[in-house]
Amino acid sequence: MTDTRRAVLLSMLLCPGGGHLYLRRWWRGSLFVVPFVLAVGYYIFYTVDNTIDVINMVVAEEIEADQKVIEEVLRDRLWRNPSVYLHIDRAVILVVWLLAAIDVFFVSRRLSAQSVNTEQPSDS
Question: Is the pLDDT of residue 9 over 90?
Fold first, then answer.
């Protein structure tokens, strides 16, 4: 497997910026890793916060303690009527992931072309 493929797969499957880190492009990789980690962190925070609110609703007997009711309330809060910030967060995750994969593809191809150029003997 070539470095280009390995770097793209790392960025697509592991984490945006993972391929950049594999190619030892630390600064460029961090430009993708940091926003991704922050966006995923916000997503987890939002989900946990809403889950705690629903648990408090059950404890206060505002909704009944039935699994289907709890699932419906959570689904409504997280998917049907989410905060505008959650929409932005999902978009950030998607855009960062796609840009990282595209960028690492071009970076690794450029690095491969540079290594081929430096390995060729000169005619002088």
Answer: no
pTM score: 0.78
| 74-85 pLDDT per residue, tens | 999 888 888 889
Distance CA 9, CA 18 (A): 9
Angle at alpha carbon of residue 30, lines to 24 and 118, rounded to 5°: 25
End-to-end distance of the chain based on CA atoms, in angstroms?
34
- HSE-CB for 73 with a 13 A CA cutoff: 18
Dihedrals phi, psi of 22, to nearest 5 degrees: -60, -35
C-alpha dihedral sign at 112, 115, 121, 124: positive
Residues 6+ positions from 35 with CB-CB distance below 8 Å: 92, 96
The amino acid that residue 18 corresponds to is G
| Rounded-to-integer distance, Cα 31 and Cα 17, Å | 7
pLDDT, tens only, 48-57:
999 999 999 9
Q: 113 near 120, Cβ under 8 Å? A: no
